[in-house]
Amino acid sequence: MSEIEPPAMSSGISHAAPPVVAVRQVTKRFPGVLANDRISLEFRAGEVHVLLGENGAGKSTLIGILAGMQQPDEGEVLVDGRAVTIGSPRESLEYGIGTVFQHVLLVPSLSVIENLMLGGNWWQRLSRGPALARFRELSALLGVTIDPDAEVGRLSLGEQQQVEIMRALWRGEKVLILDEPTSMLTPQGVHDLGQVMRRLRDKGVALILITHKLMEAYEFGDRISVLRLGRVVGDIPPERLRSMSEAETTEAVIEMMFGSTAEHARDAETLVGRGRPVHRDRTVDRSAPPLLAVRDLETEATRGECPLRHVSFDLWPGEVLGIAGVDGNGQKHLAEVLAGQRAVAAGRIDLAGMDVTDDGVPARRRHGVRYVTDERLGEGTVGIFSVATNLVLKEIGTEPLWRRGWSDWGRIHEHARDQIERNDIRTPSEKTPVARLSGGNIQKVLLARELNTDARVAVFNKPTYGLDLQNTRIAHERIVTSADRGVAVVVVSTDLDELIQVSDRIGVMFQGRLAGIVENGPDVERRVGLLMTGAEAA
Amino acid sequence: MEGLLTQPFLTALLFGAVTAGIPLLLAGLGEQISEKAGVLNIGIEGMMLFGAYTGFVAAYYSGSFGLGFLAGGLGGMLVASLVMLFCIRFGLNQIVIGIAVTLGFEGLTSLLHHFQFSRTYPRLSAAPTLAIPGLSEIPVLGPGLFQQNAMVYLAVALVVFMAWLFRNTYVGLNLEAAGSKPAALDAAGVDVLRTRACAVLSTGFLAGVGGAFMANVGAGIFVPFMTGGAGFIGIVLAMLARGRPIWVLLGAILFGVSLAMTTALQVAGVNIPTDVVQMLPFAMVMLVLVIFARHSVLPPALGLPYVRGDR
Ligand SMILES: Nc1ncnc2c1ncn2[C@@H]1O[C@H](COP(=O)(O)OP(=O)(O)OP(=O)(O)O)[C@@H](O)[C@H]1O
Ligand SMILES: [Mg+2]
User: Fold this and answer.
1) For residue A534, what pLDDT is reported?
2) Per the structure, how many domains does chain A have?
3) Rounded to 5°, angle at Cα A381 from A425 and B302
4) Mind listing the pLDDT tens digit for each residue in B90-103?
5) Across the interface, do A106 and B186 touch by the CB < 8 Å criterion?
6) Which ligand is nearest to the CA of A387?
7) Closest CA–CA distance from residue A98 to any residue of chain B (Å)
8) Which residues of chain A have a CB within 8 Å of the CB of B190?
9) Closest among A51, A34, A437 to A257, alpha carbons compared
10) Which residue among A118, A123, A167 places its CB closest to the CB of B173?
11) End-to-end Cα distance, chain B
12) Which comes out higher in pLDDT, residue A3 or B69?
């Protein structure tokens, strides 16, 4: 007996099955943006339909329409062949559509299990028993170990993402939408999710998967559609996809995403990170004294987060240290401690031979420490502030953009226009509130702000999550370029491929400890994998 | 001052504290529901006052205290429906509307009272009391606490009920979600605006009953502006209670005692200027704020209108 109850479906679904959900000529405009431009797509039972497209292409907007969060300006939505209006998320759920949104939509002050129960009939009493049983079922299925009574706000983003996936699976919908569900997951988590998706598909569920990772698209997808500037620019149907190799698919998709092959074929390989790694052959001079010396760092175990235990490492100028590990093993504390955002309970941090352990954020910034958080909304940016203000958020009140406490708006906006241009930030204007941008474009704002000024030590927590291929590549290149200029860089990521791309060495966090550091090179995957499971340094 | 600790004085003090504290308790509990759902209900003073008026009128003409409470609750709800319309449906600023509602109904009740009763202040007969068998025999405590109007016991029972509601029901979850992360509630298929509207109407009902209690049980008459800031004390109580009804009760007791103290001290003929004595409750408000305000935890979405799909 299986764990997930899909709607009754006749077996033997083929590509001839009628679409469960379809959109026809759907158009959606926002002030200054044409987010969806006459999109027509069909989503079929027993099919994993992958949506690809650059940042701001309009994928999440389309999902919002199916989820009842947005109303299309033109065009129609069809469920089981009938034109319907999905006027609210409730109606969407009633049509059997479950959604994992790109940005976590959970109540931080409620427990995991309460979040999962949310939405039940209000006149009924909460019944924890059945809910817990269902929770255990889904945990086993997804390979998740989360305390059902933990407050959601205290979980790592990766864990929150897993809770979000559980919620979408909770009722056993006939259409399941996943908007970048893997951005915070480890390879193992992605693998488990893939298994679940296959199982659901085989039971006749229609799945819509949005991702920026072509590997996932190829591995999990039955059909691929590519969006660009709000339009559908390409489609690979199942028959064709089955007959294509991964390399062929990659090439075809990149051509659809970024234009003609002639221009970009050269880049296709590099875009997906195959072939030439970003990492260039340069040697780090480890005979010189290290720029950053970290000794026996410990933090308080606040709010149920994993604290640091005896973390020590050295980092030389021009070196990129990758930090791998399952999300929630102390990476967040490590990044925050290095940034000066969190006090240490014990241990010491030396920057160029100077003790900076007790320096706060402003002092560390003056010493050239830069930090990109993984919480781009909330901690990283102020949603209602303009893109321009967010680009200078950490310099507010300082020269030259502020003079004697007065904002020089002319300059701030000029600075913003320049950054928008250089970082390809898709926004109607520099005055648009940053929360209105697409997920990837908010991330670009964050990266632009931290990479823009002179840094000596840069700490990145999941720097490329939500970025499309091209921007991921650009971000990687900029990280490595800054290392080439002598910056000491720490990159925290759950994506091992990314770390292999950019790092000189890779350290693995496990239960608050630095389980080991290995040199990047052949066989690094296996050695990191060993460390991740808690085995001793290979 | 030696006359202070006599039995009659203490009994009067307790009885007075309960009488003064119940309207605060009802207002505080009501405000707590709104705030949990993310609505800062500044108009609660107006709801109390209008509830006091409608409650008094109903009790005056029908002679029934029960009908008085019901009418008070409905009067409060009527005012709340304005807040619901402007703040929740149209998403207007909750503070501005709240102040407008309070000022508006202060004026309206005075006007209505003037038309109806001219310059007379008719008085109701004393409110019926319900002695709890056994407990009411205890000296001092008995007559002070256990020979009260039935609404007193109901209000205290409401504390327990609300604590249970918040923890064990979907209503509790929905309220929490509406104030903490409304988009998550919406995504779960629950109408945020409807949840908030119900919360605001409940607040209106409770505040109205509180107002009716003040007029019918506490004073026995209706006087314009008689709530005198009780609604605002209710807001303070709700803000400091961190979503826990029991803390509203404790706060209401504290303020009830200090309010009762002003009367009791005057009755006991203690030689302190009345102006000073009458400042006591308000000094208490400030003291409590100075000590506890730092610890208040407010819902993240408090005061923010919810618009689906906006980001
Ligand atoms: N609620 C909104 N208000 C204003 N503009 C919006 C809103 N939602 C989306 N947009 C705009 O619509 C465009 C498409 O955004 P969308 O989020 O659909 O992109 P996406 O394809 O999901 O990108 P990403 O890969 O970065 O998540 C963007 O330019 C974005 O700024
Ligand atoms: Mg998106």
Assistant:
1) 66
2) 2
3) 130
4) 999 999 999 999 99
5) no
6) 1
7) 9
8) 90, 118-119, 122
9) A51
10) A118
11) 63
12) B69
Judge if A362 and A496 occupy the same domain: yes
Q: Which of A169-183, A339-353, B275-289 has the lowest mean pLDDT?
A: B275-289
Q: CB of B102 within 8 A of CB of B186?
A: no
In this complex, the residue of A69, A118, A124 whose CB is nearest that of residue B188 is A118
DSSP E strands, A249-310: 292-298
pLDDT at A511: 86
Same domain? A268 vs A296: no
| Cα B308 from chain centre | 32
Average pLDDT, chain A: 85
Residue B22 domain flag:
yes
Q: Give domain status of residue A341, yes or no.
A: yes
pLDDT digits (tens, 9 = 90+) for A319-357: 999 999 887 788 888 999 998 888 888 899 999 888 988
Q: Look at residue B300 and tell me if it is in a domain.
A: no
Query: How confident is the model over B179-205, as a mean pLDDT?
Result: 95
Q: A86 and A42 in one domain?
A: yes
Q: Is residue A254 located within the same domain as residue A343? A: no
Asked if B169 and A126 come within 8 Å (Cβ–Cβ), the reply is yes
Q: Does residue A385 sit within a domain?
A: no
Can you read off the two tokens belonging to residue A468? 């499309």
Provide the domain limits for residue B196. Answer: 2-295
Q: Whose CA is nearest to atom 7 of ligand 1?
A: A436
The answer to whether position A128 is within a domain reads no
- The mean of the pLDDT values for chain B is 88
Q: Looking at the CA of A34, which ligand is closest?
A: 1
- Exposed/middle/buried for residue A38 (C-beta within 10 Å: 0-12, 13-18, 19+): middle
Contact state of A101 with B187 under an 8 Å Cβ cutoff? yes
B122 in any annotated domain = yes
Same domain for A180 and A85, yes or no, is yes
Partner-chain contact A89 B309, CB within 8 Å: no
Cα distance between residue A530 and residue B273, in whole Å: 80
Q: What pLDDT is attached to residue A232?
A: 93
CA distance B228 to A163: 48
Q: Domain range holding A197?
A: 21-96+173-272
ipTM of predicted assembly, 2 dp: 0.87
Quote the number of domains for chain B.
Answer: 1
Of A218, A238, A272, the one marking the end of a domain is A272
**How far does the centroid of ligand 2 lie from the alpha carbon of residue A509, in Å?**
29
Cβ contact, residue pair A119, B190, below 8 Å: yes
Considering the domain boundaries, does residue B305 fall inside one? no
Residue A138 lies in a domain: no
Q: Which helix (H) or strand (E) holds A323?
A: strand A320-324
Give the position of tokens 């104030």: B179
The residue out of A272, A307, A335 marking a domain boundary is A272
Same domain, A298 and A253: no
Determine the distance in angstroms separating the CA of B309 from the nearest CA of chain A, rounded to an integer. 5
Among B residues 289-308, those touching chain A with beta carbons less than 8 Å apart: 299-300, 308
**Alpha-carbon torsion B152, B154, B160, B164, what sign?**
negative
| Angle A48-A18-A195 from CA coordinates, rounded to 5° | 20
Angstroms from A420 CA to nearest CA on chain B:
20
Rounded to the nearest angstrom, the distance between the alpha carbon of A228 and the centre of ligand 2 is 12
CA A102 to centroid of ligand 2, rounded, Å: 6
Q: Please, are residues A96 and A173 in contact by the beta-carbon 8 Å criterion? A: yes
Q: Please report, for the domain that includes residue B290, its CATH number.
A: 1.10.3470
- What CATH number is attached to the domain comprising A519? 3.40.50.300
pLDDT of the residue at B128? 83
Same domain, A318 and A228: no
**How many residues in total does chain A contain?**
538
